[in-house]
Structures are given as structure tokens and as C-alpha cells.
Design a protein that fits this description.
Blueprint (H helix, E strand, L loop, with lengths): L1 H5 L1 H23 L1 H5 L4 H30 L3 H34 L7 H33 L2 E10 L7 E9 L4
Antiparallel strand pairs: 1-2
Helix pairs in contact: 2-4, 2-6, 4-5, 5-6
Length: 179
């Protein structure tokens, strides 16, 4: 199998991070969330959506990894790799969306939301969920680079005119065969 030759360690690391995220969510469902959700329907609904989406994303990522590991056709690997990258980025987007929702809830008056609950969940997202999702994205990029070698790198940058001292940058990586 192609996967064993080139990037087996990256796939193992990715599987471990996917498992870690799943265990973190299972633990939160059993402990952390139970006490926090009493009487806060907005928070409960947002966490339920987050949980459902992440669980679906984890299943999708595992299916794609299985397809990558079982595929002996190098042409098929590129599409699996891109699907895996899109899935990882959607996990990050959902985690960032939860973070933004919690920040919005945190700004409400204490009567509208249980501030302590929101603060604890915000710390949980920032301190646990986002770092694990970041590791997942890192592993996906390592796999993607092995599947689709970059044929072109472009870097642009400059100092922002609108806000003095802020840098602006752009990195463009083109994968696949050059034309």
C-alpha cells in the first residue's frame, strides 16, 4: 500500500488526534457539559449543534483516511487528500464558530446567561479543542504534502497602510502537476 511507504506516521498521528477529540467530547458530554447546561437553552442548543457537527466530521475524516489507506491508485489519493483537508478545515471552522458564539454570549448581561458557564466553556474551547484541531490540521497538511507535492510556492507581503505597523501577508501553494 502507498500509505505504508510514505507517510504512515502522519496517518497514525492523525488517527490519534481524531480519537483524542472524540474522547474529549465524550468526556465533556458526561461531565463538564451536564452541570453547565441547566437552564441555559441557548448554550445547550449551540453545544448540541457543535457536538453533532464535530462527530459527523470525525466520522467523515476516518472514512477518508480508510479510503486513503486502502487506495492503491495514486490518482485517487489526491481527491481523498483534498477531502481530508476540507474536513479538517471544517472542524476548525466549527470550533472557531463555537468560540465566537461563546464570546457573544459572554458579552450578554449576567441575567441573560450564566457567565461562569460561558467562561469555562470558552476556556475549554481555547485551551483544549482548538489545540487538538490545530494538531489535526497539521497532520492533514503533512499527509496532503506527501499526496500532492507542491509545484509552486508564492509569498507576498507588506506593511498595511490602513493600520500602521500591521503586516499583511499571503502564502499561495499550488499542488499537483504544473501545466
Amino acid at each position: 500500500m502507498l500509505i505504508e511507504k510514505f507517510y504512515r506516521e502522519d496517518v497514525i498521528a492523525l488517527r490519534e488526534d481524531l480519537e483524542a477529540l472524540e474522547q474529549i467530547l465524550a468526556s465533556a458530554r458526561q461531565g463538564e457539559w451536564k452541570g453547565l447546561l441547566e437552564g441555559t437553552s441557548e448554550l445547550e442548543e449551540r453545544l448540541a449543534r457543535f457536538d453533532s457537527y464535530i462527530v459527523k466530521g470525525l466520522k467523515r475524516a476516518r472514512r477518508i483516511l480508510d479510503d486513503i489507506e486502502n487506495d492503491v491508485n495514486a490518482r485517487g489519493l489526491s481527491s481523498f487528500g483534498l477531502l481530508l483537508a476540507a474536513t479538517a478545515l471544517s472542524l476548525q471552522s466549527e470550533a472557531r464558530g463555537l468560540e465566537a458564539s461563546l464570546m457573544t454570549m459572554e458579552s450578554h448581561s449576567p441575567r441573560e446567561t450564566e457567565t461562569g458557564s460561558v467562561d469555562r466553556l470558552l476556556n475549554w474551547v481555547r485551551g483544549i479543542i482548538l489545540p487538538v484541531v490545530g494538531r489535526i490540521i497539521g497532520s492533514v497538511w503533512k499527509i496532503l504534502i506527501n499526496i500532492l507535492p507542491a509545484h509552486s510556492w508564492k509569498v507576498k507581503g507588506g506593511i498595511g497602510a490602513a493600520f500602521p505597523g500591521l503586516a499583511e501577508g499571503e502564502l499561495v501553494i499550488e499542488f499537483g502537476k504544473s501545466d
